[in-house]
Backbone:
């Protein structure tokens, strides 16, 4: 389960962008000084995942022209999805600066099985107290969207951490309001413990039956 949200202010300062463009967007991106590559140049990687990962791993965001974004999976295969950095489409009607700012403010919560600790950058030294508060509020609202019917009951605690400061716990779930519904992530059968049933000593030669709890 995943939830996407947009922070009011960028949480990080330094970003690296790569543009995969067609001839039209090449003229728009070149004056800005960002790195760009024609989509036809992706053929030189020959769908090799190691080469693609070595080339594009250093970029925080990939942006691609909307006219050719559907061709990207055919040119590179599932490599961008495996790296968790599939390109964003570039809208021809909006400016490049606006779309870059939107990409900087984008956040995503991804809840996987057996992974119950999530973290996200919500601020830096250039933001004031009010801006950090707005980012934290938006990040919490995005976290609640993962399983909205249960709401705050799905969260055990919320902690703010800084680079050189002590962690601050801003929320702790109280046991006075226990969760009566099923958990967010159901463990699969193979993760449950096996318990053999008691065997009758009088029954010899019969196979032991093992069942799930």
Residues:
């Amino acid at each position: 389960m995943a939830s996407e949200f947009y922070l009011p202010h960028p949480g990080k300062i330094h970003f690296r962008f790569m543009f995969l463009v067609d001839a039209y967007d090449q003229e728009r991106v070149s004056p800005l000084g960002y790195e760009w590559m024609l989509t036809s140049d992706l053929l030189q990687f020959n769908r090799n995942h190691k080469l693609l990962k070595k080339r594009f791993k250093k970029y925080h965001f990939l942006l691609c022209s909307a006219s050719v974004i559907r061709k990207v999976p055919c040119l590179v295969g599932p490599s961008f999805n495996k790296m968790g950095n599939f390109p964003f489409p570039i809208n021809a009607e909006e400016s490049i600066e606006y779309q870059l700012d939107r990409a900087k403010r984008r956040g995503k919560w991804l809840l996987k099985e057996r992974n119950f600790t999530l973290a996200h950058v919500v601020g830096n030294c250039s933001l004031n107290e009010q801006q950090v508060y707005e980012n934290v509020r938006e990040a919490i609202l995005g976290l609640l969207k993962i399983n909205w019917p249960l709401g705050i009951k799905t969260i055990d605690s919320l902690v703010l951490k800084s680079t050189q400061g002590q962690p601050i716990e801003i929320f702790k779930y109280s046991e006075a309001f226990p969760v009566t519904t099923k958990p967010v992530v159901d463990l699969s059968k193979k993760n449950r413990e096996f318990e053999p049933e008691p065997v009758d000593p009088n029954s010899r030669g019969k196979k032991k039956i093992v069942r799930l709890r």
Q: What stands out?
A: The first strand starts at residue 2 and ends at 6. The chain has two domains: 12-106, 107-172. The beta strands are 2-6, 17-21, 35-38, 61-65, 88-90, 106-110, 157-160, 168-172, 194-196, 210-212. The longest helix spans residues 129-144.
